[in-house]
Automatic annotation (TrEMBL):
Binds 1 zinc ion. Its EC number is 3.1.-.-. InterPro entries: MetalPrtase_cat_dom_sf_prd (IPR023091), YbeY (IPR002036), YbeY_CS (IPR020549). The lineage of its organism: Bacteria, Bacillati, Bacillota, Bacilli, Lactobacillales. Its main location: cytoplasm. This is Endoribonuclease YbeY. GO terms for molecular function: metalloendopeptidase activity; RNA endonuclease activity; zinc ion binding. It holds the Pfam family YbeY. Its cofactor is Zn(2+). It comes from Xylocopilactobacillus apicola. Single strand-specific metallo-endoribonuclease involved in late-stage 70S ribosome quality control and in maturation of the 3' terminus of the 16S rRNA.
Length: 156
């Protein structure tokens, strides 16, 4: 997968960037995305993700990850046609607040690696069309998420 990473008003130690890249690659393979499929991740401050959450989701609080899927409800025939023409597939953008993720890892007693991995794969699944609005959807998404994290060696 083609991954663009931007770090804006946030700090993310180098060791975690490799994990993010590896997980996107692993998740993309597990989800059968083509090698030229594109994803963008921007790491932002808690204040910035709070503003994004407020402006786009009407939720006045900090969160760990927000996804903006490009293909929401896209016709699969159009996607197939674009693939046949060699046009890369762009799944969309993730915004992640690493300080919030690190705090949440401490609060839940998880390793930072596990919580960051959870956040990245959860966002990738949303960009790939998965959701958790019904219990059936949630079961499918969480099971797939845990399978990917486990195959990377990240467990609770």
């Amino acid at each position: 997968m083609e991954l663009e990473i931007k770090i804006k008003d946030a700090s993310l130690p180098e060791q975690y960037l490799k994990e993010v890249k590896d997980l996107i690659e692993l998740g993309g393979k597990r989800l059968n995305h083509r090698d030229d499929t594109e994803v963008s991740i921007t790491f932002v401050s808690d204040d910035e993700i709070h503003q994004i959450n407020k402006n786009y989701r009407n939720k006045d609080r900090v969160t760990d990850v927000i996804s903006f899927a490009i293909e929401d409800g896209e016709d699969t025939k159009i996607l197939s046609m674009l693939a046949d023409q060699g046009i890369p597939r762009d799944l969309g953008d993730l915004f992640i607040a690493p300080n919030f993720v690190f705090k949440r890892a401490r609060d839940l007693g998880h390793s930072v690696e596990r919580e960051l991995g959870y956040t990245v794969i959860h966002g990738l699944l949303h960009l790939s069309g998965y959701d958790h609005t019904t219990s059936e959807q949630e079961d499918e998404m969480i099971n797939l998420q845990e399978e990917i994290l486990k195959s990377y060696g990240l467990q609770k």
